Amino acid sequence: MILYTPLAITDIYPDISNTFENRTYIEYEGKLIAVDKNTDGSYQMIQLLSTDPQDFLNDNYAPGTIIK
Questions:
Q1: Strand bridging mode 23-28 / 66-67
Q2: Could you tell me which InterPro entries the record lists for this protein (predicted)?
């Protein structure tokens, strides 16, 4: 993809390196998930990494779920 614009590259793609500082991947109930670590030590689920479509129908793996 080619993007022609008079804007600076930092205006289009801002520095997001600090967004992923707390991001990690853990295994929870046998499933691999991407989580962000909170200040109280708990984890907030960001994304379920699974090839089984039935896993995505389970409310326990919904984005935003807090894992202690």
A1: unpaired
A2: YlzJ
Tens of pLDDT, residue by residue over 33-56, are 999 999 999 999 999 999 999 999
Number of domains in the chain: 1
Decide if 7 is inside a domain.
no
Three-state DSSP state, 33 = strand
Backbone angles phi, psi at 7, to 5 degrees: -80, 155
pTM of the model: 0.70
Residue 50 lies in a domain: yes
pLDDT of the residue at 48 = 97
Give the Cα separation of 42 and 29 in Å (integer).
16
List helix spans (H) across the chain.
9-12
The answer to whether 44 and 64 are in contact (CB under 8 A) is: yes
